[in-house]
């Protein structure tokens, strides 16, 4: 199996850490977040990695090399300019397998990648989106009204649950390639909408798991604490 990892972002929300390090090299415990993610992919049977790089890409190349240390084959695709969260697919279209993962390079999750792949294949999907049910609490009291603006309800800081994308996908090459052009910017929401509009099957895979995007300093601090206290939860093999 193969994964294309989006590792070219500047990670501006996570400054000042990302001033000198690319975001995927920000450490979680004793290893970069991207190394943790790649170890999880390897445990799920992924042996080939393509890193889509841009910002401080020489540091990523120096750290991961060609993947010898991890027992994986790692290659690099350099963006001359930011191409969004799906545009890098176009640069490697001739290298892609029939079925492949696409992942952000900064995920902390306990999602079982092998189970997600099996669900994708069993469902005959053209794309499968790893999904997470996230509760969002309003900071304000929410008023409900009728057409005459008479109050009909008053909810004090209600909590709503939304199904959100985790930044991890399984894709079918033949379904995706008509929508990507080498060197053109494209974001994943636009690609998913294009697939649905074209009659393709896009599934949402939402198992019980932990997921955290470490894009903000508060989330990064939470990720550090969780990994330090329960390392085996994220690396079951004890590595």
Ordered list of secondary-structure elements with their pairings:
Elements: E1 2-6, E2 27-28, E3 31-32, H1 33-43, E4 48-53, H2 57-64, E5 73-78, H3 88-91, E6 99-104, E7 107-109, H4 113-122, E8 127-137, E9 142-145, E10 151-155, E11 159-172, H5 173-176, H6 188-197, E12 202-205, E13 211-213, H7 217-229, H8 231-234
Parallel strand pairs: 1-4, 1-6, 4-5, 8-12
Antiparallel strand pairs: 2-3, 6-11, 7-13, 8-11, 9-10
Structure description:
The radius of gyration is 19 Å and the shape is globular. The chain starts with a strand and ends in a 5-residue tail after the last helix. It has helices at residues 33-43, 57-64, 88-91, 113-122, 173-176, 188-197, 217-229, 231-234; strands at 2-6, 27-28, 31-32, 48-53, 73-78, 99-104, 107-109, 127-137, 142-145, 151-155, 159-172, 202-205, 211-213. It is built from 8 helices and 13 strands. The mean pLDDT is 90. Helix content is 27%, strand content 30%. It is α/β, with parallel strands linked by helices and 239 residues long. The relative contact order is 0.19.
């Amino acid at each position: 199996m193969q994964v294309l990892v989006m590792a070219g972002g500047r990670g501006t929300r996570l400054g000042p850490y990302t001033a000198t390090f690319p975001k995927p090299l920000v450490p979680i415990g004793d290893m970069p977040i991207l190394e943790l993610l790649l170890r999880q992919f390897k445990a799920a049977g992924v042996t080939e990695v393509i890193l889509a790089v841009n910002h401080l890409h020489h540091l990523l190349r120096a750290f991961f090399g060609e993947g010898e240390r991890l027992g994986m084959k790692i290659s690099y695709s350099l963006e001359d300019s930011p191409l969004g969260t799906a545009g890098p697919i176009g640069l490697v279209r001739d290298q892609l397998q029939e079925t492949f993962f696409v992942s952000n390079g900064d995920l902390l999750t306990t999602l079982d990648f092998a189970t997600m792949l099996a669900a994708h294949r069993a469902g005959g999907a053209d794309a499968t989106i790893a999904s997470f049910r996230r509760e969002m609490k309003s900071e304000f009291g929410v008023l409900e009204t009728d057409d005459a603006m008479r109050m009909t309800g008053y909810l004090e800081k209600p909590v709503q649950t939304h199904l959100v994308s985790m930044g991890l996908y399984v894709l079918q090459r033949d379904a995706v390639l008509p929508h990507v052009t080498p060197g053109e910017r494209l974001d994943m929401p636009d690609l998913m909408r294009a697939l649905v509009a074209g009659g393709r099957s896009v599934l949402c895979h939402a198992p019980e798991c932990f997921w955290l995007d470490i894009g903000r300093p508060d989330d990064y601090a939470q990720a550090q604490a969780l990994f330090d206290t329960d390392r085996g939860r994220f690396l079951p093999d004890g590595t």
